[in-house]
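Students often ask why we bother encoding 3D structure as a string. The short answer is that it lets us treat folding as translation between two languages. Here is a chain of 53 residues written in the first language.
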Amino acid sequence: MDLNLTGRRALCLAASRGLGHACAVALARAGVEVCLVARDPARLAQAAEGVRV
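And here it is in the second language, the structure alphabet:
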């Protein structure tokens, strides 16, 4: 399904795991430039590696 989101930007909160991470991954795959936010810097860095397309 093409949501026509390529080139858009999104701020994903609680993005180090769970629903926030799943949303970040889905948006990145749809061509969105995502900014991840989380409380734990180590988990956030690990999550960011998984989101990069």
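Translate back mentally: The longest helix spans residues 18-29. Keep this in mind for the problem set.
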